Amino acid sequence: MSRYAVARNYADALYALAEREDAQEEWLTMLGEIGSLYRESPPFRAFLNTPRVAMEEKKRVLRSVLGDRYPEPFIRFLQVVLDKRRQGLIPLMEDAYREILNERTGRVHASVTLPFEADEVFRGELEAALSRFLEGEVAADFRTDREIIGGLVVRVKDRVLDGSVRRRLQLMRRALLDENAAAVAASDSGSPE
Question: Where are the domains of the chain?
Answer without folding.
Answer: 3-102, 110-170
